[in-house]
Each structure stands twice: as C-alpha cells, then as structure tokens.
Amino acid sequence: MKVKDYLKIESATNVSRSEVGRLGTAVIFIVGVMVYTGARFSHVDQLFLLVAAAVIGAYMAINIGANDVANNVGPAVGSLALSLTGAIVIAAIFEASGAIIAGGDVVQTVKKGIIDPANVADPETFVWVMMGALTGAAIWLNAATWLGAPVSTTHSIVGGVMGAGIAAAGWDVVNWDAMGKIALSWVVSPVMGGIIAALLLYILKRTVFFRPDPIIAAKRIVPIMIALMAWAFTTYIALKGIKKIVKIGFPTALLAGLVMAIVIYFIVRPMIARAVLKLDNNRDGVNRLFTIPLIMSAALLSFAHGANDVANAVGPLAGVVDVLSDGDGGVTVGIPLWVMVIGAIGITVGLALFGPKLIRTVGTEITELDRSRAFCIALAAAVTVIIASQLGMPISSTHVALGAVFGVGFLREFLQKRLGKVVENVLHQHEGEPNFNEVEKVLMEFRNAPPEDKVEILAEMKAMGAESVIDKAQRKVLQKALKRQLVKRSSLLKIVSAWIITVPVSAFLAAMFYFVLRGMLMP
User: Residue 392 — left, alpha, or beta (φ > 0 → left; ψ -120 to 50 → alpha)?
Assistant: First the structure.
C-alpha cells in the first residue's frame, strides 16, 4: 500500500472516530436525562411517558444548540473577532445563563395560539400532541443542521404543534390567521434585517472607510456606533432578556438604553482615541476597533436567545410534565427548573458537539465578513427585533440575523457590479488609443485591489495630473465604487429553501409521530 493511500485511510478513520465521539457524548447526556427523570418521578403513574418526553426534550435542546445558536456567534467567528472555541465557550455560558436566570416562568404550550387548546383538552391526546410536536421539530432541526442550513427553532416548534394538532383534531384546530402572520414573517424578518444592516454598513463606509484618513474618521465615528449598539442592546435585553426578573415597558427600556449609550460613549471615546495611535491608517486598523464590541454582542445575543427561545422550545415538554403531574395542560403552564436546566445543558452540548458546522456557514460561507461588517450585522439584529416587537410582528431572530448577513453581502455585490460597469465604460472610451493596454492594466489592478489600496491608487493617479491614464472625471466616477464582493448563491438558495419548508416539514413529521405514538399507546 502506498503512503498516500494509507494517509487517506487514516484521515477517514479519524473523521469517523470524531463522529462516533460526538454521537457518544450526546447519547450519554440523553441517557443521563432518562435516568434522572425516572428517579425523580418514580411516583408518577405513566412514568414511561414522562421519561420519553424528557428524552425527546433533551434531543430537541441538542438540536437547538447545533443549529440556532450559530446566528449569534457566526459573524464574530467569520470576522476573526472570536476563535471558534472562544465563541462556543461564550455562547454556551450565556445561553445557559439566559435560560436558567431569565427564562420565562410560564410558556404557551400551544405556541402563539397556533391551535385551539379546547380541541385537545383530553390529557392523553394533549400529551401525544406535544410529544409529536417535539419529535417532529427536533428531527427537522437535526436534518437542517446536517444539511448546513440555519433555520428557526420557533418556526420548527410552530410547525410541529400545528401538524400534531391537525392529526389530533382536524384542520379546523389551527388558527390560520396566526399562521398567516408567521408566513409573512418569512419575508419581513430577513428583508428588514438586511435593509438595516446594509444601511449601517453603507453609513460606515461613507463616514470612515471612503475617507482619505479612515483611522482619523474612525476616531470620531466608532464611539458613536458603539454607543448606538449599547442603546440597542440595553433596550433589547430589557425588553426580551430579563422579562422574568422584571417587567419593563418600551419607553422605560428605551430611556435606559439612551442613558447607557451616553455613559458608554464617554467611556469609549478616550479609549478609542488612545487605541488609534497604535493602529495602521487602513481598513484593518479600523476593524480592530470593533473586536470587543463584537464579543460583547455575541454574548448578549446568546443571553437573550437563551432567555427566550429555550423556554419556547421546552414548552411542549413543560406541558407534558404538567399533565402527567396532575395538571390540566392549559394554554400556559409553569416551567420547572429541571426542565430549563435540561434545555440549557442540552443547548450547550449540541453547540459544542455539532455547532461548528453552522457557525462556519453563517460566518464564512455566505459572504466574506470583517469586523465592521459583523458589527453592523449584530447591531441590525438587535434593532430589528426591537422595532418588530413594538409593531407586533412575529419575527424570527434566526431570519433576522441571516437576513442581515445577506444584506451586507448584497450591498457589497451591488457596489462591485457598479464598479464593473464603470470599468467597462472607461475602457470603452479608451478603446483604440495607443495607451489602451496601460489603461486596462491600471483599471484591472484597481478593480481587484482591497478598498484601502483603491484609495491609494486613485490618489496616485490624481497626483500624476495630466500624465494619468484616466482623466479627472473618470477618477471621480471610480471614486464612488470602492468595494466588491459576491453573495454565495448556493448558500442563499439552500437557506431560503430550508426556511420555506420548515413549518410544513415539521408539521408532517409531527403528525406522523403523533399517529405512531397513538398507535403504540392506545389500548
């Protein structure tokens, strides 16, 4: 056997061992949940159902960690503000903290009024519906993670509850008005996030990166941008992240955010002024100023996600526990601490074992991100959720974050296309002239150069005056187009397709598992 063939086999074997190790760790966690639930509720009549529900809930939590958390830390990893290991550690700590410290006291077991609880009032039917919903949603999340498609946990649960509810009580059980609003959010969430992120990035380009001395411009603009982020995130956490601890109205949250923004501005401004003295006067130098804000945003987004989506995801499990513990499984039920802990630990396990694939997808496979772009994405995510929540729009944080990534990518693509047209027009004007080859060389060099080099090229041509290969008017046109980058179309198609089919696929799987459970458990 050749050495090359041996190395290929060894590499394949290592991958296999790694997969087995991850699966083994996940199984150990699930078995631990099974043993704990069985020991804690040994007095419950239908213990096997409760254990099965806890196992399905643990499996669901693992899949949330593997898929949904990537949106919070992916841009920071893609921009190299955080290492993959650092991102996993931060996300795990803050997701778990958000779930346990600030997770909801109660949760709607029929998510956002998707089905009428009066039609599933029978306790046994209710248990089967919730278990079918959890199983269908978890399997779809597992498949989406395997395909590398970030999807909405909330929409998966919605689809699961809808499908199992239809299987139990027919089509009339569904609140189709609520489903219509959710379907509308598939479009509104990413578009709103994308527009806000693109607008923020364009403002940053115009005020900093397209200036002759970007580091000097950054000294003035970056503290304002960081203060704006402090305002947005303080308001966001006050409204969405600590609602269990204290109820805060929108005006109060907005005012608290403004106060925090002012404080942060006066703290950050002298720090930025000192930092710029040690940085290069180019894009890389400016990007370094966004490192700490990006790390903070990843932590805060993870905390808010843990406080909200984890409770929603374990809602069906909480409903099952309530029924099997002699409750009535009403519209809202309390979430026991041990259920929240299962959700928090499960998310941590899923993120650590299977999260890197989706983190890379969000951070590097859609469009190239640097720290300023990632900063705009994180800020846009917080701003969009605040605006939508006040407008009463049911949006998905996953769709918002991914929409922001696409918005940044499409802005850069637009600028590249504009630059391409400009270059072609200039070349056409010089066609047939003796210096055409020299003009073409300079323009191709300009088109392919990094943004800071484009500025230098234009400055050099301006200094050449009449000897420059392009005239003053042509330089002004080129000055307006200083960036290029494309969005990866295959990633766009894959992610959007996964978004569209999330609810129907989760519904189908949940209905199927409902019928399986009913067939197994009915006398």
Answer: left
